[in-house]
Amino acid sequence: MEIWLNDAVTMKKPHACGTNQWRVVRIGADIGLICNSCHRRLLLSRSDFIKKVKKIKHTPDSHDTSGQVIINRLE
Ligand SMILES: [Zn+2]
Description:
- This protein has one domain.
- It has one helix and seven strands; from the N terminus they run E-E-E-E-E-H-E-E.
- It has one helix at about 45-50; strands at about 1-5, 10, 20-25, 30-35, 40-45, 55, 70-75.
- The longest helix is centred in the middle third of the chain and has 7 residues, at about 45-50.
- Residues about 65-70 have low confidence and may be disordered.
- It binds zinc ion (ZN).
- Zinc ion (ZN) binds near residues 15 and 19.
């Protein structure tokens, strides 16, 4: 599974606000997400993230912080 900054993420379960669409804002030991609807931030460990994610889609804004495309492999 590949994940880039600004990827559009679909979670298996909807957030409390009703949407299951998120955007990736941080990639590190934890994955940082922002809810597309209520803009709450969420930090998930990589293993939690992999359990909860349904789909990851690259967007025209997807990239790493230096502007270059980077691929983080999640096992
Ligand atoms: Zn929300």
